[in-house]
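In this section we walk through a basic example: taking a raw amino acid sequence and producing a predicted 3D structure, encoded as discrete structure tokens. The instruction is simple. Fold the sequence below.
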Amino acid sequence: TAWTLQSDRLLWSSVWGLTAVMAAISAVNVVLVFFIMRTLHSSEEVFGLVDSMWTVGLLIGAWAFSRTIRPATTDSALAIRLFAVLGAVSIAVIMVGSVRQALWIVPCYLIGGAQNGGLNVLTGTLLGRRVPAEARGRANAAMGMRVQAGALIGYIAGGVLLEISEPRWIVVGCGVLGVLTVLAVAPFVLRSARAAAPTPELAQVG
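The resulting token sequence is shown next.
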């Protein structure tokens, strides 16, 4: 039988949960420049510095998280970690919206970026473990399509919200919505995690 995303409930719930959270928080990418330059009255140079910190954090997080995954780490544990990380990203976004000076966004972005790096490691590991080698390209495309669609919804929402609300409240609102989304989808992920069968490699080891 050909592999499909729907056939793996743990992966299915993880991908759709990730998509929902991305839709909730992606508006920040549109709003941040207005928040820094209009609300916090900072310069383009400060915006560039702040924005680059997410990438720095991402690299650090990818390295750190990759060292925490062991052969004995179950797929269920990876999925649960994934949503804990999404919650941490959302909290970092709330912290961004609470600052009074732009440079205070730097530590928030380092934290958020590190969690983003961990997110990439966790999703990549889950796909690598649970999807047959011949179907991994299709699996990556299926996940990427959904997550990018969620992000696009967030970008559109960010542009619309700027017409009716202040950047600070949009940023805080995105973070709060992200946390609420994680809490809403967590029961489905936990249920799928409990029902997930062990990976073949782990079954052989045991």
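Looking at the output, two observations stand out. The mean pLDDT is 89. Residues 167-195 form the longest helix (29 residues). In the next section we compare this with other chains.
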